[in-house]
Specification:
The protein is of the alpha/beta class and 223 residues long. It is built from ten helices and six strands; from the N terminus they run E-H-E-H-E-H-E-H-E-H-E-H-H-H-H-H. Helix 3 (62-73) runs parallel beside helix 4.
Length: 223
């Protein structure tokens, strides 16, 4: 794939450049801030951008804003966002911006080379890839009796967690060692328990993941 990187840590940026080159990907640009990334994409959109959430000048959300702008202007470009911390608002914004070709990983995941490269491949293919640790922490934070997620069985929580990571029903079935029809039953049960059986306007999978993140989608007309 043709990839562009935006990361203000020179050490991490150069390490990613070398890793991607060794894997046969073409690194078209490697920059240190969001504005430089937008300029590079405008000059020739890549297949995927990998961008840090916090970059100069304020180190708050420059990378995220660049990522959302890329999704708006170049929807065919995959976006894989890296973050130092679990920041569910950023993950929710990415999901609601577009449910395909998008990913959110903790920076620690980059050290797990196979997992990072798998996420990159999934995003480049138009899929989704959300860090399993982010999903685990968010699901663990729910447990109150009036919390809709508390209605889910342990297996349904496993399925929802895999959905939040961006896995398809087929890949969930393979990872949990169950049939695809069993996964489909669990998914339908999740929709029922989260009151999404008759939801319109957004993919029900996206809405289920947003419930996991504790976020609501922006106002939008029904399909």
């Amino acid at each position: 794939m043709r990839v562009m990187l935006a990361e203000d840590s020179t050490l991490l940026r150069e390490g990613l450049v070398r890793l991607l080159a060794e894997e046969g990907h073409a690194v078209a640009a490697a920059v240190g801030d969001g504005d430089a990334l937008l300029a590079a994409v405008a000059a020739g959109p890549p297949d995927v951008v990998v961008v840090d959430v916090r970059m100069p000048p304020t180190h708050t959300d420059e990378g995220l804003r660049a990522a959302l702008e890329i999704r708006r202007r170049w929807p065919d470009v995959g976006v894989l966002v890296l973050s130092q911390y679990v920041e569910k608002r950023y993950a929710a914004e990415l999901i609601t911006a577009d449910s395909g070709g998008v990913g959110y990983l903790l920076k620690d995941r980059v050290a797990q080379v196979d997992e990072f490269l798998d996420a990159l491949d999934r995003v480049g293919a138009g899929g989704a890839a959300f860090d399993p640790e982010v999903v685990r922490r968010l699901l663990a934070a729910h447990g109150a009796r009036d919390d809709p997620l508390a209605r889910l069985t342990p297996r349904e929580r496993d399925v929802l967690g895999a959905m939040a990571q961006g896995h398809t029903n087929a890949s969930i079935a393979a990872s949990l060692h169950v049939s695809q029809s069993a996964v489909e039953k669990h998914v339908n049960a999740i929709f029922d328990k989260l009151d999404l059986s008759h939801a319109t306007g957004y993919s029900r999978r996206v809405l289920a993941v947003l419930r996991c993140l504790g976020s609501e989608p922006p106002a939008r007309e029904s399909d």
